[in-house]
């Protein structure tokens, strides 16, 4: 048994995204002995790159499962090409517009109805709605990936149905919420965007094991709705996080705590292209472990899918440091594809990458 995790390069300039292909099973055997999975498809043009990659390196046009983690354009737009050009058996995607029962009560405007919110979600999440329609037209099985859903060696760790429905009223394009907490979340997001626009840089000095990240979850509700999955192959755990934030990751860690497979973490996708807003010390300690001595390793590969010119945000040096001093080999695509594998033959023209160095000095936006 073996596996290959391919994190394709997405984003020519500063706009990062995710497009991944995974193959596991008897990699030297027939196609029937292997499972092929696509997790997100990047922007529209990335879909064709993903199709070509699977045909060239996996020698197949059949994909067993496509997972759309969440409906942001840098994750979902390329999946249309994947479904149009490859033979896809199953699609996992959330259908927010079907989770509108009783939702009108959560908004201040008394004229809003459950039905109108459902239609608004179809419009605001048009890429997701169109992808579902396309898949159903082609006879592809469509399922919503909530906690516990499984496909072969693949299992969903989050979000739960209950948590997902809590997040929907906070999605972009929703009316003003009744809850003061929701209103504060919206203000916090606006302030974050305003500060980012200023782009004032400051120098940061770091010491080994000193986290320059915190436990405050400031990512969007849509990001926290990301599908978090694990694949266990031959006692090795591969963890895929989409753009999930601290709250979502913490809930997924609860599922990991209750997993008794004994599988050891060997690969983790660094959430949201390495954004500082998505991970904190406490949740990383739960998922990876506490910081360890400099020079030690836990044998874990952590990869951030980041645009060629995505820094200083994607990936943020503080995030790479946090993974590094917990014993992970931190890597970032930065315009080049990365293949993490076990039990697979090396590819011609592909070379090993050195881990990200520990960044004792770096600049970040003030």
From TrEMBL:
Residues 35-105 form the Metallo-beta-lactamase domain. This is Metallo-beta-lactamase domain-containing protein. It comes from the Bacteria. InterPro entries: Competence_DNA_uptake, Metallo-B-lactamas, RibonucZ/Hydroxyglut_hydro. It comes from Ferrimonas gelatinilytica.
């Amino acid at each position: 048994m073996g596996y290959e995790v391919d994190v394709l390069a997405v984003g020519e300039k500063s706009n990062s995204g995710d497009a991944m292909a995974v193959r596991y099973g008897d990699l030297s055997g027939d196609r029937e002995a292997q499972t092929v999975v696509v997790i997100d498809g990047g922007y529209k043009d990335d879909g064709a790159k993903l199709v070509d990659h699977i045909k060239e390196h996996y020698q197949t046009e059949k994909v067993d499962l496509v997972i759309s983690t969440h409906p942001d354009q840098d994750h979902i737009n390329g999946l249309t090409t994947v479904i149009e050009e490859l033979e896809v058996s199953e699609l996992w995607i959330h259908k927010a517009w079907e989770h509108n029962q009783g939702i009108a009560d959560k908004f201040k405007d008394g004229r809003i109805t459950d039905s109108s919110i459902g239609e608004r979600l179809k419009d605001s999440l048009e890429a997701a709605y169109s992808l579902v329609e396309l898949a159903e037209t082609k006879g592809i099985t469509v399922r919503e990936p909530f906690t516990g859903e499984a496909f072969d060696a693949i299992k969903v760790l989050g979000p739960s149905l209950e948590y997902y429905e809590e997040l929907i009223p906070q999605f972009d394009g929703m009316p003003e919420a009744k809850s003061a907490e929701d209103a504060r979340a919206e203000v916090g997001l606006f302030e974050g965007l305003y500060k980012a626009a200023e782009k004032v840089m400051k120098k940061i000095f770091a010491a080994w094991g000193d986290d320059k990240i915190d436990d405050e979850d400031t990512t969007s509700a849509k990001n926290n709705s990301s599908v978090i999955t694990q694949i266990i192959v031959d006692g090795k755990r591969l963890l895929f996080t989409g753009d999930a934030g601290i709250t979502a990751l913490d809930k997924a860690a609860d599922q990991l705590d209750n997993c008794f497979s004994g599988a050891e973490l060997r690969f983790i996708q660094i959430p949201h292209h390495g954004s500082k807003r998505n991970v904190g010390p406490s949740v990383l300690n739960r998922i990876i472990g506490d910081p360890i001595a400099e020079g030690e390793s836990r044998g874990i590969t952590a990869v951030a899918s980041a645009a060629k010119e995505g820094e200083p945000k994607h990936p943020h040096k503080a995030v790479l440091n946090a993974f590094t001093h917990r014993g992970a080999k931190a890597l970032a695509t930065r315009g080049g594809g990365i293949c993490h594998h076990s039990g697979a033959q090396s590819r011609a023209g592909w070379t090993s990458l050195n881990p990200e160095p520990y960044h004792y000095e770096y600049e970040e936006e003030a």
